[in-house]
Amino acid sequence: MPPYEPGDYVKFEFPNRFTGVGELLWVIVDRCDEELKAVVGRLDNEPGDNHGCKIHKGKEILVRYDLILEHREPWEFKSE
Q1: How far is Cα 31 from Cα 17, in angstroms, rounded to an integer?
Q2: What pTM did the predictor assign?
Q3: Radius of gyration for the chain, computed over Cα atoms and rounded to the nearest angstrom
Q4: Helix, strand, or coil here: 13?
Q5: In the sheet where 23-33 sits, what is the strand order?
Q6: DSSP string of 11-69?
Q7: I need a surface site. Which of 27, 62, 65, 68 has the fewest CB within 10 A?
């Protein structure tokens, strides 16, 4: 059974390879990929640095389980 369910929220740090300073972003889980040990979902907040317009709110993204810093179920999530 995957550790995350569709609709769950996970937080991870998106690294900035130029500054070395990461940015914390929330992802709404769409599904888990057990082979890759990752969640596939959509960004739920607008990044402060759009990293050359490559990431934005709503963009589909894959996050490995080992990079997830926080997990919240939909009923307990409050936007920060």
Answers
A1: 27
A2: 0.83
A3: 12
A4: strand
A5: 60-64, 38-43, 23-33, 9-14, 68-72
A6: EEEE--TTT---EEEEEEEEEEETTTTEEEEEE-S--SS-TTTT--TT-EEEEEGGGEE
A7: 62
* 61 close to 3: Cβ distance less than 8 angstroms: no
Task: Find out whether 45 and 24 touch, Cβ atoms under 8 Å.
Answer: no
The neighbouring-strand residues paired with 33 are: 38
pLDDT tens-digit series, residues 24-35: 999 999 999 999
Q: Phi first, then psi: what are they for 5, rounded to 5°?
A: -110, 155
Structure-token pair, residue 5: 């369910």
Q: Contact 36/65 with Cβ under 8 angstroms?
A: no
